[in-house]
């Protein structure tokens, strides 16, 4: 179904990405100073997706990408695609699934895994 994933950038600002059903990043948002601003913009986008515009570009390296616009505001930028068809599939994934996608928050500085334990192999005598 796809998901919005909130995380922190190296400069301690927040961002979110929209991932496809297969877990591939489709677009990345601009930076936000506060985490709740990400959540607000995600919810706003989900409820007004029909107003979204996709401005398509071809980069100097020959790859395709789009800028996602909400009204006249630049909202997010897509990943690079090798073909125009793949770019169109990315847009279709957004239009089809974004309005009901879940929001996952991985912005906490705490590790989601327990402290790493090191296991040494015991020698087995035969």
Outline the structure in words.
The structure is a single chain. It is built from two helices and seven strands, in the order βββαβββαβ. With 126 residues, the chain is an alpha+beta fold. The chain has one domain: Roll (PH-domain like), CATH 2.30.29. Strands 4-5-6-3-2-1-7 form a seven-stranded mixed sheet. A hairpin with a 2-residue loop joins β5 and β6. The longest helix has 14 residues. The N and C termini lie far apart (51 Å). The model has no long low-confidence stretch (mean pLDDT 87).
Per-chain topology:
Blueprint: E1 3-8, E2 14-19, E3 25-29, H1 35-47, E4 52-58, E5 64-70, E6 73-78, H2 84-97, E7 102-105
Can you describe this structure in just a few lines?
With 126 residues, the protein is α+β, with helices and mostly antiparallel strands.
